[in-house]
Amino acid sequence: MISALTGHYHRNPTVMLWLMVGLFSSILLPWYGIEDGFFDLEWIIDGYPLDSDFAPLFFLLGQGEKLWLTPLIMPFFFAFFALTLPQRSSAFSWALIIGGGLGLIWMCGQGLSIGIRGWQIASLQELFGPLDERQFGMGYGAILYFASCLFLFSTGLAEQRGTMGDKFIIGMICFVVMLVGIFVFYPIIKLIILAFIDEQNAYSLSLFWEKISDSRIWSLGCVFAERRCGVAWNTVFMATIVGFLTTTLGLVFALLVTRTNLRYRRIFRAISIIPLITPPFVIGLAIILLFGLSGVVSTTISDIFGLTPTRWVYGLPGIVIAQTLAYTPIAFLVLIGVVESVSPSLEEAGLTLRANPSQVFQTVSLPLIRPGLANAFLLGFIESMADFGNPLVLGGNYDVLSTEIFFAIVGAQYDQGRAAVLALVLLSFTLAAFYIQRFWLGRKSYTTITGKGDSGYNMKLPPLLSRTVIFVGSSWAFFTIVIYSIIVYGSFVEMWGLDNSLTFKHYITAFSVSIEENGIQWTGSAWNSFSTTFMIAAIAAPLTAAIGLVTAYLLTRHNFRGKNAFEFGTMLSFAIPGTVIGVSYILAFNVPPIEITGTGIILIVSFVFRNMPVGVRSGVAAMSQIDKSLDESSLTLGAGSFHTFTKIVLPLLRPAILAALVFSFVRSMTAISAVIFLVSAEYDMATSYIIGRVENNDYGLAIAYSTTLIFLMLLVIILLQIMVGKTVTNRRQAGTETQGGLNVT
Amino acid sequence: MKLLLKFAVAGALVAGSTVAQAADKLTFYCSAQEDWCQLMTKEFSAATGIKVNMTRKSSGETFAQIKAESSNPKGDIWWGGTGDPHLQAAEEGLTMAYKSSMRSELQDWALRQAESANDKTIGIYSGALGYGYNEDLLKKNNLSVPACWKDLLKPEYKGHVQMANPNSSGTAYTTLATMVQLFGEDQGFEFMRGLNKNINQYTKSGSAPIKSAAKGENTIGIVFMHDAVKQAVSGFPIKVVAPCEGTGYEIGSMSIIEGARNPDSAKKFYDWALSAAAQSLALQVKAYQVPSNNGSKTSPSAPDLSSIKLIDYDFKKYGSSSERKRLLKKWDTEVYAQ
User: Fold this and answer.
1) Where does a domain end: A148, A165, A182?
2) Most B CBs within 10 Å: which of A293, A525, A532, as the mutation test of the B interface?
3) Which of A58, A231, B98, B185 has the lowest tally of Cβ within 10 angstroms?
4) Are residues A478 and A545 both part of a single domain?
């Protein structure tokens, strides 16, 4: 059949391929989603292909069902028509663009307007009258059909640009745009719409205004009177303090590791990484066990000095301590890269010109670090705003936006509209910070690995500064160690504060295994959520890395119209707090056309698109560090572009791949704010299980589970490091290691 | 094409050989404590052979989920959690009416709950509001032992009392509604304003005040008495108080979700959960609520509702969303913002 066609028509393999995919999906695969799950194959023997639940597109139409799908045949005619036209003609490309575009638009239009209860939009109902038929979410057939239209469309676009058009590149751009559109923008738009809807389901601007101008959000009562401040200001104030503290401590650590002669300074690097792989709540719990009303430190101090212990830690102080512990590593990882990339030759030049070390530090090194400082500050600021776990445990009466959003939805008021409004406020804050970061600091060349030599060692710190840095760094490191000792100890204590005898009880409850006749029984109560979490994280991590690197490749090596918007779109989800993602995903993906709530897929999707910006950033950072002349020389020497990519670019990208894998894996294991809305009976995640334990005063089990997770993540990171390997360059070793962590710029 | 055909055939063969007999299923939303939910799941599966998928979330979270899923319900039955969200769900048509054959065995208050929701929900347990205090901390701070609601207004308790925020917790909303019914609206709010002076924190979750009292992070926590009893039985130095003026109560409820995919399994669960045997399971997990089936076993540690002065709590009025919104708004401006 194919050869008959090609004999007659002009051969264009891409068009042929996607046309075949489109036909295959509409003739053979069930159009709608299968209720029993994506991977269930029961449909094959259960009425397929005629039963309307399982029928492919053509069978549906042939039986006169779901007739609104009829226009979806059009793209096939256009594609066949295109094949009769000479290639490189503008008619050929237009036929593909119109055909594919029609398919895409009609798919979206019908999917959004006809749902499980007939018409989704009231005005359509008035226009066409009530619809008896209904439709479920997209299935294999519809998904593949959609892809086929997308790539026919992108091929058309590529052909239009003549010899300049690269089908693969343009296809990839369209693909990424489509994914980001569906999984980042669409849910957010759904959420924004909700903010404008009143209880009668009508749009209302005045209600929106009333909600957004609420004094509970914007009141400045704590400044001018003895009243409470609005949550918005509370949040900004908290995030500013945390941003400042994490940046300072991050810089101290970065200088300590790279610019002092302190022995064992490598230990600091390890210590500073551990908070990154700590599940939420744990640090908060440890702080309560230390500084709470009955905490170890509080009671000791009050016994010695005869003071009455207070609840000072609940509120802003507690949140700030916990968040500073948790987010200093991020600042550290950003800053160590910057500190190390300060070119030694510049500092050497300063010294040669007879400036003393502290002059060089103040006039050469520090100014070069400055953009990094601003970057680290903004990251700490955004992370603090989006944090959910610490304010929940330690917040006291200090309300912040992330917890307010959560309780607006799950609390006794069930006010989704208020949640949407608060989410918008939070989103606009993080976006503003993000925008400043992107456009104020984003324009900078990062090219530091070139074919040329750049040897030498960075200058050490001037003595006084060095001592200060060592003192502050060591104190904070000591504090971190105390916190983690409490955590490990807490997992072995029978019942904290009541019965301090040591026990393995919590580990046994969570992870016991018994061997019975019919094999191993995983009897521990945590196994279910543990295996789900591990599986989901293990699937999400490579997907995140792949889509991140592809996007990074498009961004750094190709120029196309709308590139800035494209980049902004792919980075947007970094600025969206998890709570907002959770709520908007539930709103967007519980109903057709995309119906994935209650599955593992929604968890994977949320992780992939939440963490994608890190994959993109580390890929961009790595790729812009690789001088294009390396690619070019490889090409000039006769290697093909595929060969160049695999032998030259990919090996140099190893740190970026590792960064994306590690970050995505760790985030998927420790995320809570989005997850709490998306878990279901079958797919429960570790963090949501841990919250349940904390709620139940079961600290021992919660901490034991968290400790296990920490060790598991350490193990996985080490394994990944071995598997992916390191980039070997002739430069100082330290320069490559830093990219192994998180490298958001 | 040939290759594809081969794939399809192979796929069909594999599928045909692995498809098992489709068993009865039930998606169970549970709003009680985790171990109780797990026990219910396990015992129901064992009793009926129905495969149960259980998700545990607080009643507020579950309500939010059911509402979000309303156009495409995923859950079948919702068991546990305070009655208000169940009533609200009934009011919004998210749950469906069902008259169980087990009704004759139930206490009056369980049936009254069903009545006020047109049979869309039913009472499964109840618990009275009260407070608990940490004995050690009370002694350490030389505080007198409280016995009434009004005692909590004494200046000596400043910074020692904790309750949840009624905006986020059903327990705290019950407290607010109880005060309004017990003292009248003006006096009730006067009480809440006085209490506000002594409150050290409005927690988010309803039972958090007594949990932090158990851990020594707080002295007095206003909670449901069975939550306080649980901490005392677990060995923490907690004493439970049934306030002398009388008090309100909650009715933990159960509802079948409208549009459930497995309505028959849901009804089986409903009937089973109202049986004396199922309700007696509560004791195994230290849940000291009063069961709604007259024949269930109770614990001697559980608060005895018949010896507590209970007010005539108007669930219909104070569970309605308009009254709730009005009271919460009033509380926000007249109490919380002060």
Assistant:
1) A165
2) A293
3) B185
4) no
